[in-house]
Amino acid sequence: MQGIESTTRYGETRDVRGVGYVTRVCARALTATTQCGHAVLLGLVLLASCALLTACKSPPPPPPPTAVKVNVAVLAAANPDSNGRPSPILVRVYELKTTAAFDSADFFTLYGKDQATLGADLNAKNEFMLRPGESKGFEQNVQPGTKFIAVVAAYRDIEHSRWRATVPVPPNKTTPLTVSVGAADVSIAPP
């Protein structure tokens, strides 16, 4: 490295490029370090901002409950006796996980031993004795696992009646249902 070093009278070697050169080299090194430091600092600030935004974000709200709003309407001519006079009728509304046991059971087995017959498929039951022309309404959150609402109407002439009906229940919303108890058939429909 000629011209860069020179020997002093005491035998020491010294840089002859001068103070300006050293200042420029140090300034470049400092600038590079500062730019690198700014990039690292900027990265840390961005990382901290993301962490704060994630931490401040609230969890999603829970889904709305699954509910039914049921209106049981007994028509004026419902459940005629042997003389053709309308009679009071027992109506059961079930919450079911599946309908297999419900659909395969005969009326008397289901009426007499509904819990044993439906087993684990049964989540809940409501029972009403209603007179012809009377209505009964209720609203409730269904039990977890409920997929169907099922109805049984205990007609006097069970052999000539359509005494059961089912309908699926959509999850995470309130479903309005009308149970119509006619002269010899029961049905479930949206209002």
Describe the 3D structure.
This protein has 191 residues and is α+β, with helices and mostly antiparallel strands. Helices cover 28% and strands 32% of the residues. The protein has 4 helices and 10 strands. The chain has helices at 19-56, 100-104, 107-112, 114-118, and strands at residues 5-7, 13-15, 67-74, 89-96, 122-130, 135-141, 148-153, 164-168, 174-181, 186-189. Strand 9 (174-181) and strand 10 form a beta hairpin.
Outline of the structure:
The chain is of the alpha+beta class and 191 residues long. The protein has helices at 19-56, 100-104, 107-112, 114-118, and strands at 5-7, 13-15, 67-74, 89-96, 122-130, 135-141, 148-153, 164-168, 174-181, 186-189. It folds into two domains: 5-56; 67-189, Type VI secretion system, lipoprotein SciN (Immunoglobulin-like, Sandwich).
